[in-house]
Automatic annotation (TrEMBL), chain A:
<keyword id="KW-0256">Endoplasmic reticulum</keyword>
<dbReference type="InterPro" id="IPR019540">
    <property type="entry name" value="PtdIno-glycan_biosynth_class_S"/>
</dbReference>
<protein>
    <recommendedName>
        <fullName>GPI transamidase component PIG-S</fullName>
    </recommendedName>
</protein>
<comment type="similarity">
    <text>Belongs to the PIGS family.</text>
</comment>
<keyword id="KW-0812">Transmembrane</keyword>
<dbReference type="GO" id="GO:0016255">
    <property type="term" value="P:attachment of GPI anchor to protein"/>
</dbReference>
<feature type="region of interest" description="Disordered">
    <location>
        <begin position="517"/>
        <end position="539"/>
    </location>
</feature>
<dbReference type="GO" id="GO:0006506">
    <property type="term" value="P:GPI anchor biosynthetic process"/>
</dbReference>
<keyword id="KW-0732">Signal</keyword>
TrEMBL record, chain B:
<keyword id="KW-1133">Transmembrane helix</keyword>
<keyword id="KW-0472">Membrane</keyword>
<dbReference type="GO" id="GO:0016255">
    <property type="term" value="P:attachment of GPI anchor to protein"/>
</dbReference>
<protein>
    <recommendedName>
        <fullName>Gpi transamidase component gpi16</fullName>
    </recommendedName>
</protein>
<dbReference type="InterPro" id="IPR007245">
    <property type="entry name" value="PIG-T"/>
</dbReference>
<dbReference type="GO" id="GO:0042765">
    <property type="term" value="C:GPI-anchor transamidase complex"/>
</dbReference>
<feature type="transmembrane region" description="Helical">
    <location>
        <begin position="522"/>
        <end position="544"/>
    </location>
</feature>
<dbReference type="Pfam" id="PF04113">
    <property type="entry name" value="Gpi16"/>
</dbReference>
<keyword id="KW-0812">Transmembrane</keyword>
Amino acid sequence: MILLSVWFVVLLGLPFWWKTTRVYRAELPNEDIEQWNEWMTCQPTFPITINLHLTSSVDSIPASTGIKDGIEKRVQELNANHISKAKFPVKFVTDQAWSGSKEGDISDRPSAIPGTYDFYISPGSDTIATIKTHRQGFIQVESWDEDHIVGAVTEIFNAIFGTEQRVIQQLVHAADTRGAEKVKDQLKAVKYAPGYQLTFSLFSGDASNGVREWKIQEAINAYLTPVLKSMSVVSTFTVESQVQHYASLTFTPQLDTDQKEYYLTPNSLPNFINAAEWSLASTVTSLPSLNFLTYVPKPSESPLVIKSGPSSLRSKTNSFLIPRWGGITILNRDNDTIASPQVITEKELKPLMKVFLTQLRDLMGLTDLSAVKASFPIIFHKASNEVPTAWELDNLLRRRTAENLVDSLATLTSLARLVADTPNMVVLDHIQKDVVDALKDVERSCQRLSEQQYVEALTASRDALVKAETAFFDPTMVSMLYFPDEHKYAIYMPLFVPISVPLLMAVLRELKKHKESKKALAEKEEEEGDKEEDKAKKE
Amino acid sequence: MNDGSVYSHFQFTTHIGAMMDEDKFDGPTSNLFTHYNLFPRSIGQILHSFEVEELHLTFTQGRWQYDDWGYPLAPSAGTGVELWAWLNDDKQQTNANWKGLTNTLSGLFCASLNFIDDTISIEPKMSFRNEGLYNVHSAYDATNANSTSEKTPRKLRYGSLPHENVCTENLTPWIKLLPCKSKAGIASLLKSHKLFDSRFYSMAVHVRPVCEDELCRIKSLELIQTITAVFDVARRDGSYDWTLSGLFQRGITQACPLASTSDLIVHLPQTIEHPNQYELSPLPAQGVHTIGSGDDKQEIAVYDLKKVLGGEPFQLSLRWENSRPKSVRSISPGFTAHRYFTGFGQERGGLAIEIYNNNLEDTEAILLDTLPWYLKLFLHTFNVEVNGKPLENQKDIVKKMFYQQAVDRSRPAVLELALNLPAQSKIKFTVSFDKVFLKYTEHPPDANRGFDVGYAVVTVPLPRQQGQIGYGGLDHLRIYQERDASLVQGHGDGDADGKDKVRLYTETLLVSLPTPDFSMPYNVITLTCTVIALFFGSMFNLMMRNFVVEEPKKTTTTGKKKKTE
C-alpha cells in the first residue's frame, strides 16, 4: 500500500516535472512550408501580355485570329519541356489595328504595365525587328502572310524572353530538388536586397603622385543618377564616396621592361584588395554595399596595367569585376599631359563611370538583351547613359521576384529543419508569427504574379524574404543552443538516482514476495492435497 | 617634465566642409556626409546616422599625476575609456542613438564601449558643456548660429569604463583615421610598443563644430585626434638625455604631403639658477620663441617639418650637462583632487573626495561623481569639511546640488555639486554607502578582483597661463597656427575673462563587493539532493521493513525474510 502510494506520487509528479522543465517551443507551420516547397498551394506564374498591332495600310490583312492561334501554338511548343512548376502563360491580343506602317508611326504611348508589350507589324523588303527602350517593338516582315508573321513573332518572343524563362525555370527547379546548382549569371550578381549602398573610393597609392581630390560628385550626378533612378523600382541606392591616401598593395606588381610598364596578371587580381588596410567596410549601415574602386598607383609603380604576361595584350578598360563585391579600375595618370595633377576632373572620370556602370549592371543582374541572336537582325534601342530599358527592368523584376520567393522558402525550410533537429532550441511566439507572415507574403506575391502585377509581387516577395531572415537570424534562437544535456543530468542525478534505487528495489522485492507467496500457496495447496490424499489413503 | 620624464603630445586636426556656406549647406541630407576626402568616412557615417553633434572619446592608460606634472594638454585624463557626446534630440531618439553610437564605436575601435549601457550612462547637468560653436543639424534653417544652439534640443550623454585596457588594437584603427596613416608625417613616429611602454598614455578623438570666421558664416566640423604619452627616459640607464629616434624608435623622413601645416614643437625645460644646463640640437632656424611672461615664461622651439625635412630622417636630441638636470622650476598646480574609500568590511563603506585649492582667491567649481548602482549612497550622511573642520552650513560651499538616485540594474547614482572653493583650502566631502549583494550572474569573470569605480571629475576655471606646460585645453596648440585662437575661445568653453575650464580627474577606485563561492549552486544542489535522497531512502526502507519487523513470530514471514536476505 505504502509502496503504491509513493509510486503514485512519483508518477503524478513526472508530468509536472516534464511540463515545467520543457523549453518553450511555438509550433511552426511545417506542413505549409512543405507544401510550399512543392509549390502545391500556388504555382509561380509569370504571365505576359503581347498586343499585336497589324498594319491596316496594306489591303490584304491576314486573319488575325489565325495569326494569334498560330503564335500561341508555337509558343506553347517552346514551353513544352517544363522542368519545374513555374509557368509562363502568354496572352496575345490582336484586336487593335494599326494605321501606321513605318517605325516612326508608332504612337508615343508606351505601355506602363510591366509585362504588357506592344508589337507593331508591317510588311517590308526584308525581316527586321526593332526593340525600343519602352515596352514597344516594331517588326517588319518580308512577306505579308500568316506563316511569316507567326515565325517572326515567335522568334522574337523566344529571343527576348527565352533566356529569362530558362533561368527562372532553373531557379524554381533547383529549389524543388534542393540542389545547389546555381545558374551561372547569379554568381556574378549580388543577392537581392531592398537597398544597396554604393561606395565609390579613390585609392591613391602614395600621396606623392599628387592626387588630392576628384570630382566624383559631379560625375555621379551626370552618369549614375539616371540609372539609379530608373532602377529604384527594384531597389533603392545610397551613394557615398571617399578618398584614401597611402593605400599600398600587398604585393609588388611585375615589371615589363620592354613596355616600361608594370602589370598585374589575372592570377594576382584576387589579392588586389588590401582588406586589412583599406577601410572599405561601412560602420553603420546594414545594407549590402557595393564598392567601386579607382586605384591611382604610386609613381614608382606606374603605369599599372592588367595583362596576362609580358608580351600579351593589355586589358582595354584596365578594370576588373569582383563578383558580388564590386568593381575596380586602375587609373594611370600622365602628370605631364593633364591640366591639373591635383584634381581628377569630371572629364577624366567619364570613361571610369562608363566602366562602373557596366559593372553595376552586371552586379545587379541586368541581362543585356542586345546579345541575343535570331535568324534576322534585331535592333535594340539603347537609352542614353546605359539606363536600363523597360524590357530589361521587367526582366529583372520577374527574375528577382522568383529569386526572392525561392530564397525565402529555402530560408523557411532550413529554419523548420533546424528547429526540428535541435530539441533544446527555444522558439518564441514572434518567430512563429514571422514565419506565418512570411508564408502569407509568399502567397500574396505568388498571387500578384499570376495577376501580372509584377511590382507588387516583388514588394511582397521582398517582405517575405525580410521576415524569413529576421526569423532565422533572431537572437533568441541562438541563446539556448549551447545548453547541453550533460548539465541536466549532472543536476538531476544526485536526486533521482538515490531515490529511484530503493524504489526499484522495493518493487522488485514486492514482486519476488508476491511470486513466492503464490508459490507457497501452491505448495500449501499441494501439501493439503497430499494430506487429503494421505487422509483418503488412511481412511 | 619636472621629474625628467618626456611628455609628448601629438595632435592632428582635420576639418570637413570648409566651404560650407549657409546658402550651400542644405541640412543633414546634404552631400557633406556622403563624399569624403580627408575626413574619415567611418567617423562621418557615425556622426551622420546617430545625429551626433559633438563627440569626445578618450582612451587612457595610467594615471596622470597632477601634483608632479601639472595639467595635461589633452582635455581628458581619467584612467580607462571616457565617451561623451552631444546628440541631437529632434526626433526624441537620443537613447537609441546613444546605444547605436556606443556599439558602433566599439566595433570601430575594437574596445568594449558597448558596455556603456543604461546602467552607467549619465546626463550631467553642469559639467561637460558643449565645446562646439553651432549646431550641425540645424545650421541650415537659421541665420544666427548662436540662437540656434539655444533652440535645438540637444542631449548630453556621458559614460566611462574605468576598467578598460588600452592597447595596440585600439591604436591601429585610430591611425587609420589619419589621412596619411602612419606612412608619412608626424604619425610615422607612432609605434605601438614604444608608446605603450610609458608611464601615462592617452589617445583621443574629438569632433566638434567650429566657425571659421568671426560671424560664423563659414562653418566646419573639426576632428581632433590626440595622443599623449609620458616617457620615463631615465628608467633604463639613469640618463635624462633623449633623442627623437630613441624615444620612438622611428624617425620622420617626410612630412605628410596632405597636411597644410606640420610642426614639431619642443617645450624647453624651465630651469632656474643654472641657465645653460642643456643643449638642444639642432636649434630651429628661427631661434627659440618665448611665450608668456613673468613666472609663466616658457621657451619653445618650433620646427616646421615641411622645411626641415630633406629626405633624411629628422634628428632631434636634448642633452643635459652630466646627463641629468640640476635644478628645474617646480610646478604647483592650482587645484588638485583626490578620492578614496573609507570603512572596512564587505557590508558598508564610505567615500571621501578631497579638493585642494592652492590659489589665493575663491573659485567656483563643479564636482561630478558617478557611482554604480551597487553602491547605495546615503545622502543624509553627506558631510563637508573645510581644512579638517566640519562645516555647519553647507550652503557656504555647496551652492547647488544635483543628485540622481540610483535605480537597481538600470541607472547609476549621480552626484553633481556646484561648489565655491575658498582660497587656500582643503575641502573634503564624505558620504557613506551600503554594498549590495549581487546576483550570481552579475559578477564579472574575475569576481574577486573587485569592481572598478570610475573617477570623479572636477571642473575648475583656470587662469590662462600660456607659458605653463600642461596648461589645459586643446586651444593651447592653436596659438601656433594661423587660425586665431580667440575665434574658438570666444564662443566656446573659455570664459570671457581669459579663463579656461579644465577638468581634473581623480583616481579610479576598486571596490570589493561580497563575493559568493561560485561553485556553490552546484554544491548546494548536490548536497540537498543527497540529503533528501538519504532521508527518503531511509524513511522508505523503514516503512517497507516495519511491516516485516513487527511480526517476527510468524514463521512464514520470518522464513520468507530469511530467503530474501
